[in-house]
């Protein structure tokens, strides 16, 4: 083979390899859902062990799906592995996130204002002015680094008791409310990246707190009244209405929204 022919063959082979690599490096899309990037391989070569090898293999094959929620400022991240073994957990500030290594890491990303753990997903809420496209790479990296590290999601002893657990002194009506919330209502709300917390039943009124993507969502009132309230009243005649319980975080958000709405009204007048 002549030198010129050999060079042509080498150039053609190199172009083929580069083309194949370029195809394999394209972002994957499944049903229109964007998948997260793979975690980078550390530069320092660690001591080999079967456990570490399994961990690295898991990271390399892990991908993260994202799904929209009814709340534009909340996005649902699905890592493809179980998140919470039972119940849910929510963190609304840096101080509260100290109970969870992953939440603590996520709160270091500029623009994040809430982290919610579901059975197989993580809902992240952002500040209104922040851009998802700028935040996503850091969020993907934090989630994948956590699951590769082997650390617990929540520190031992920090998990909250189930709000819908049947207690010995629960009345028949309360037991039915909790059962409906757990089996019929909660799964549907978690599909949208949110959750509900049972806070009590008194004088025919069921008190619930909205969590995850449901916080600050424009359709939350519709969800409470047209969805949850109608179902509970249909199956339990003793239920007369459903009311939302606001915590300090919700009250501050509502005050800020009212102040902004009033300011915009004055400018347009």
What's the SSE blueprint?
Blueprint: H1 3-24, E1 29-30, E2 33-34, H2 50-61, E3 65-68, E4 74-78, E5 89-91, H3 94-97, H4 101-106, E6 112-117, E7 122-126, H5 132-149, H6 172-191, E8 194-202, E9 205-212, H7 220-235, E10 241-244, H8 248-268
Parallel strand pairs: 9-10
Antiparallel strand pairs: 1-2, 3-4, 4-7, 5-6, 6-7, 8-9
Class from secondary-structure proportions: alpha+beta
Helix/strand order = HEEHEEEHHEEHHEEHEH
User: For the report, how would you describe the main beta sheet?
Assistant: 5 strands, antiparallel
Strand order of the largest sheet: 3-4-7-6-5
CATH superfamily of the largest domain: Scaffold protein Nfu/NifU, N-terminal domain
Provide the β-strand percentage band. 15-25%
Query: According to CATH, what is the class of the largest domain?
Result: Alpha Beta
Unreliable spans: 2-60
Strand tally is 10
Task: Estimate the mean pLDDT confidence.
Answer: 76
Organism: Umbelopsis vinacea
GO molecular function: iron ion binding; iron-sulfur cluster binding
Domain Scaffold protein Nfu/NifU N-terminal: 64-150
Pfam family, one: Nfu_N
Offer a few descriptive terms.
alpha+beta, Ribosomal Protein S8, Chain: A, domain 1, GMP Synthetase, Chain A, domain 3, three-stranded mixed beta sheet, 10 strands, disordered N terminus, NIF_FeS_clus_asmbl_NifU_C, iron-sulfur cluster binding, NFU1-like, Nfu/NifU_N_sf, Scaffold protein Nfu/NifU N-terminal domain-containing protein
Question: Could you please describe the fold and organization of this structure?
Answer:
The protein has 269 residues and is an alpha+beta fold. It folds into 2 domains: 118 residues, Ribosomal Protein S8, Chain: A, domain 1 (2-Layer Sandwich), CATH 3.30.1370.70; 81 residues, GMP Synthetase, Chain A, domain 3, CATH 3.30.300.130. Helix content is 44%, strand content 18%. It is built from 8 helices and 10 strands. Strands 3-4-7-6-5 form a 5-stranded antiparallel sheet. Strands 8-9-10 form a 3-stranded mixed sheet, covered by helices on one side. It is globular. The termini are far apart.
């Amino acid at each position: 083979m002549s030198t010129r022919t050999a060079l042509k063959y080498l150039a053609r082979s190199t172009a083929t390899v580069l083309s194949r690599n370029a195809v394999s490096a394209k972002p994957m899309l499944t049903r229109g859902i964007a998948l997260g990037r793979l975690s980078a391989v550390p530069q320092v070569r660690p001591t080999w062990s079967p456990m570490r090898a399994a961990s690295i293999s898991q990271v390399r094959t892990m991908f993260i799906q994202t799904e929209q929620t009814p709340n534009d400022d909340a996005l649902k991240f699905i890592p493809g592995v179980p998140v919470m073994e039972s119940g849910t957990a929510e963190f609304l500030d840096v101080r509260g996130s100290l109970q969870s290594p992953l939440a603590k890491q996520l709160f270091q990303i500029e623009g994040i204002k809430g982290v919610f753990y579901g059975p197989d997903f993580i809902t992240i809420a952002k500040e209104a002015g922040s851009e998802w496209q700028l935040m996503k790479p850091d969020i993907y990296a934090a989630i994948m680094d956590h699951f590769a590290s082997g650390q617990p999601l929540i520190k031992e002893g920090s998990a909250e008791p189930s709000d819908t657990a049947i207690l010995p002194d629960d009345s028949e009506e309360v037991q039915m409310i909790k059962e409906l919330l757990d089996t019929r209502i909660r799964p549907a709300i978690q599909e949208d990246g949110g959750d509900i917390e049972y806070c009590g039943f008194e004088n025919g009124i069921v008190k619930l707190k909205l969590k995850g993507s449901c916080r600050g969502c424009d359709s939350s009132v519709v969800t409470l009244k047209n969805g949850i309230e109608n179902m509970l009243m249909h199956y339990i005649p003793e239920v007369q209405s459903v009311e939302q319980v606001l915590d300090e975080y919700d009250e501050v958000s509502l005050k800020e929204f009212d102040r902004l709405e009033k300011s915009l009204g004055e400018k347009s007048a």
